[in-house]
C-alpha cells in the first residue's frame, strides 16, 4: 500500500469520526418553524425536549388516608389515625387491622390513578414526617379494595410498634 494513500485514509476516517462525535454531542432544537410554503418535516435526528416533569408539592392537609395495624399491638392504628386527623388528614374509613400480620416494616402506600404523582408526593411526605424510615410504595391491586376512597394507605409495622408508638 502506498504511504500517501494510507495517510489520506486515516485523515478521512478521523474527520468522519469527529463529525459523528460532534453531531451526537449537540442536541438539535426541539422544533424549528418551517418557512411559509415549505413542506419539510423535522429531521429524524431531532429529539424532543426532555424536561423532567416537576414533582408536585405534597398536600399537608385534606389527603384521604386509611390506617392499618400490621402488628399485635392493640390500638396503634386508631392512635395514628387520630394524630393524622388532628394534623388535617381525612380518614377515608375507620382504622383497622391489616389482613396480613405480622408486618415487620411500616409501609406508606399511594394510589396509582390519574393523580398518582400527587399521591406519591403526599405519601412520601407522610412517610418522612411521621414514620422515619418507612418505605413508600404503590398500592397493589389486592389492597385497593381494602383502602377504598383513600389516596394514601399506611400499614403500621413492628418497627413502628417497637419505637414506642
In terms of topology, how is this protein built?
Layout: H1 3-25, E1 64-69, H2 76-86, E2 90-91, E3 96-97, E4 107-110, H3 116-130, E5 135-138, H4 141-144, E6 152-156, H5 158-162
Parallel strand pairs: 1-2, 1-3, 1-6, 4-5
Antiparallel strand pairs: 4-6
Largest sheet: 6 strands, mixed
CATH topology of the largest domain: Alpha-Beta Plaits
The number of strands is 6
Instruction: Give the CATH class of the largest domain.
Output: Alpha Beta
Label the CATH architecture of the largest domain.
2-Layer Sandwich
Strand residues, percent: 5-15%
- The overall average pLDDT, rounded, is 80
Shape by Cα distribution: elongated
Helical percentage: 25-40%
Structural class of the secondary structure composition? alpha/beta
Number of structural domains: 2
Q: In whole angstroms, how far apart are the ends?
A: 83 Å
Number of helices: 5
Uncertain segments of ≥5 residues (pLDDT<50)? 18-44
Provide the succession of SSEs: HEHEEEHEHEH
Rg value: 28 Å
Describe the structure.
The chain folds into two domains: 1-50, no CATH class; 64-162, Alpha-Beta Plaits. Helix content is 35%, strand content 14%. The chain has helices at residues 3-25, 76-86, 116-130, 141-144, 158-162; strands at 64-69, 90-91, 96-97, 107-110, 135-138, 152-156. Strands 1, 2, 3, 4, 5 and 6 form a six-stranded mixed β-sheet that branches. Helix 2 links the parallel strand 1 (64-69) and strand 2 (90-91). The termini are far apart. Residues 18-44 have low confidence and may be disordered.
